[in-house]
């Protein structure tokens, strides 16, 4: 079993390990090169997110979701369509991609065709919903090349994501990543359904009890991809903006397939 990972962040002295637009594309190419059946890939991003107008008709809300590399003000954003084309579309049969994307407006950041939308009131994650908890996430179906792709993102496309220092006590962490780590540590991530419901409950409880979430998740860029064969991570400039509440973030689960959420969670 081979495990490799690549990390990009703004503190790197090597210019090729800074999260510029070109380096992010180069890292995605590295991630997908040589992927074959049996490989398990993980992509993690935490940082700036945004939206731009969609002119293709694919997006339900008419907007493309974006991640913002270190040089986005001059080089431009990276669109969800590009993330799909580089990491999801070429995923071969027998290979798996799991993505964690903790940024604003990230609900459909990989353009996966199905989104988790359980009937209101079910907060247990046991999978016993009276009807399918999946809904179409786009106007057009876009799948893989036979592989399995799943993404957990920080919030809906129309929401922003918060940060917290609760995980480390000093460094700022995205609230969604905080909830993911806590769910795994507390043993409430045994299935995909239990994991996403647990993450939503953790954030809701934290906000209800007045935890200081700090800044919006536009506080850095941090992407990590890792697995038996590949991995990557990046981090960008930090921005301290007060979390205004109101439209409280709800972590999202999307997939290339409408699978049974009682399926055991694993990387």
**Helices and strands, in N-to-C order?**
EHEEEHEHEEEEEEHHEE
Tell me about the biggest sheet?
8 strands, mixed
Rg result: 17 Å
Structural class: alpha+beta
Strand order of the largest sheet: 1-12-2-6-9-13-7-8
Gross morphology is globular
| Low-confidence residue ranges | 213-246
The amount of beta strand, in percent, is 15-25%
Mean pLDDT: 82
- The residue fraction in helices comes out at 10-25%
What is the total tally of β strands?
A: 13
Distance between the termini: 14 Å
Number of H- or I-type helical stretches: 5
What is the fold's blueprint, element by element?
Layout: E1 4-8, H1 21-32, E2 40-46, E3 49-53, E4 63-67, H2 72-75, E5 78-79, H3 80-88, E6 96-102, E7 114-116, E8 134-136, E9 148-153, E10 163-164, E11 173-174, H4 175-185, H5 192-208, E12 222-227, E13 252-255
Parallel strand pairs: 2-6, 6-9
Antiparallel strand pairs: 1-12, 2-12, 3-4, 4-5, 7-8, 7-13, 9-13, 10-11
Helix pairs in contact: 4-5
Task: Please give a structural write-up.
This protein is of the alpha+beta class. It has helices at residues 21-32, 72-75, 80-88, 175-185, 192-208; strands at residues 4-8, 40-46, 49-53, 63-67, 78-79, 96-102, 114-116, 134-136, 148-153, 163-164, 173-174, 222-227, 252-255. It has an 8-stranded mixed sheet, with helices on both faces. Strands 3-4-5 form a 3-stranded antiparallel sheet. The protein has a two-stranded antiparallel ribbon with strand order 10-11. Helix 4 (175-185) crosses helix 5 (192-208). The protein is globular and about 50 Å long.
